[in-house]
Structures are given as C-alpha cells and as structure tokens.
Amino acid sequence: MKIDIMTLFPEMCNAFLNESIIGRARESGKVEINCVNIRDFTEDKHNRVDDSTYGGGTGMLMQAQPIYDCYKSLCKNDEKPHVIYMSPQGAVLTQQRAKQLSEKEHIIILCGHYEGVDERVLEEIVDEEISIGDYVVTGGELPALILTDCISRMLDGVLRNEEAYSLESHYDGLLEYPQYTKPFEWHGKTVPEVLISGHHANIDKWRREQSIQRTKEKRPDLYEKFVQKDKK
C-alpha cells in the first residue's frame, strides 16, 4: 500500500513515521509512506502558498494551485488515488473506516493549515473528509499521522498477526478487556486467577465478559450499538 501525505511540514511527519512499528514497516517495505512538501509546487517567487480570503476575515488560506500541482505529481499513469482531507467537518474516524481504507492501493492525505484550504481544490480532488474528533487543532499533520498509523498497522506483516489488532478496542465495536503482566501481585492487587489457570476457553469467556462490561460502563453509546447489532 502507498500513502502520500501532502503537507507544509514533511520533517514533522517523518519524525513520527520513522519511529516504532510504522518506522520498521516503512523500512521493510510493508507500507510506502511519502511526505511531500506542498511548498515545493508553488509558483510564487517568495515561496508563498497562502493568501488572504475573499470577503474578509482573519487568517490566511492555502491556495489551490500548489495543492493541485502537488496532487498531480503523485498521480501516475492517469490513476485516481483516494484523496482524504483531514478536516473537523469530516466524518469522525472509526476503526471500521480505517480497516476499509487499508484495503485501498493508494491514498493521498491532504493536510490543511492556517484558516484551511481554497474550497475549489477540495471540490476538484478530494474524495472524503475525515475528522479525528469534534475539536480543532492547528493543522492537519497530527490528524494525518493518526490516520496513517491507524491504517498502516492493519496491513499484512506490520504487526505480528491479525490478532494483534483484531482484539483491540473498537475493532468489533467493544472496548478491550483489562490486561496484566508481571509481577503477579503489585500494591496489594493480584492478577485475576482465571488468567493463570491455563484454561483457554475460560480465559476467552472472561475476556469477552470484561469487554462487554467495560464498554457498558465507559462507553454506553458503543454498548447500545453493540446490543442493537447483536439482536439482528
């Protein structure tokens, strides 16, 4: 899979993407991730990529031309990659949507900045807008990194096996069960006996029950969806 991130801050993005699991996946070729500087495509002699907004208002807006030319440079053989704009106006990212996106061959993620992006280029190239939550951050880089990480870790070979992510929170609509490691006792609290019983069926049953209970207590909205889905 190939993911291109169109950004004004490629160094910032690479600093994160070169580390840990995603860094190893890039190095081994499990996923190709490129951070492309939109500023390299500006036609402005002062290297500007933004200007004031028509109609007035505070702040600057990213121009269509550098973004579009950056996008075109990433399209090979007349292909149309799936383009995502990270925006608080988009649909909130879910594990299910990330899984769907992980099945695509080529994704381009556009990071906005300043007051956003000229609407015309969004209409021209963007297939969907995605938000990481109902709040606003300074630019699209952090949301883009979250999306890239979420997608990449579900690709073949990035994690040890599918179970490494399929048992995590949100994958099947439930939160993950509590987990423990050594020592057996810490601050007077011990590990649940079932986890050291060696009885795998009982362990699986306990974990499932804990996932359901934890979801009911911490995320009643998700629990209600799970109940409704389970009735169908």
Instruction: Give the count of helical stretches.
Output: 9
Arithmetic mean pLDDT: 92
The computed structural class is alpha/beta
Q: Which sequence of strands runs across the widest sheet?
A: 2-1-6-5-7
Helical fraction equals: 25-40%
Cα gyration radius (Å): 22 Å
Helix and strand succession? Answer: EHHEEEHEHEHEHHEEHH
What is the rounded distance between the termini?
A: 34 Å
pLDDT < 50 runs, ≥5 residues: 163-167
The general outline is: elongated
Beta-strand percent range: 15-25%
- What's the main sheet like? 5 strands, parallel
Number of strands: 9
Give the SSE map.
Blueprint: E1 2-7, H1 10-17, H2 20-28, E2 32-37, E3 50-52, E4 60-62, H3 64-74, E5 82-92, H4 95-101, E6 106-111, H5 119-125, E7 128-131, H6 141-152, H7 163-166, E8 185-186, E9 189-190, H8 200-218, H9 220-231
Parallel strand pairs: 1-2, 1-6, 5-6, 5-7
Antiparallel strand pairs: 3-4, 8-9
Describe this structure in words.
There is one protein chain. This protein is of the alpha/beta class and 232 residues long. Helices cover 38% and strands 19% of the residues. It contains 9 helices and 9 strands. The strands form 3 sheets. A 5-stranded parallel sheet has the order 2-1-6-5-7, with helices on both faces. A two-stranded antiparallel ribbon has the order 3-4. Helix 3 packs parallel to helix 5. It is elongated, with a radius of gyration of 22 Å. It starts with a strand and ends with a helix. The model is unreliable at 163-167 (pLDDT under 50).
